[in-house]
Amino acid sequence: MRYLLVMAIQVLLFDQLQLWGVCHPYIYVLCLLMLPITLPHSVDMLIGAAVGLVMDVFCNSIGIHMASCILVMFIRPYLIGAIVNDKDRLNEQITLHALGMEALLKYVVIMVLIHHFTVFMLAAWSWNYIGFVLIETFVSGIITMLLILGYNILKFK
After folding, report:
1. What sign has the CA pseudo-torsion 54, 62, 119, 131?
2. pLDDT tens for each residue of 92-115
3. d(CA 123, CA 73)
4. Sign, Cα dihedral of 104, 110, 111, 113
5. Distance CA 20, CA 29 (A)
6. What's the pTM value of the predicted model, to 2 decimals?
7. How many angstroms separate the CA atoms of 153 and 16, rounded?
């Protein structure tokens, strides 16, 4: 239910928000990042495709979000395996409490930057705009990461 709320907030609020012309926070990626780690990889990919498709429909973005979400969900189990030690793998959820701040921060930073870079690069569709794409990725990524980490901190207070 909370993932539907996050998607609604993304569509109704954050898609309308553009700060400084380069900040486009995509908090809906929280829905993908916080999925249980026990899901099969194929289910991860299907969920990523569905979330991306919903965002594409509401953003009128012709597959950009779907491609980005599928890429993030493809990379996710490998990144989790690299960041999380075996003892922590017993926890089903990816949360601040389960992983600790350092591991969660690494995970969120890498995944958000991959997602945002893919979205903005596909939207630009040219290497001529790489400088602008990197600025958009950095600024939007920082705001998105702060919102996701804030959510995790508030969730366990």
Report:
1. negative
2. 778 777 778 888 899 999 999 999
3. 20
4. positive
5. 21
6. 0.89
7. 25
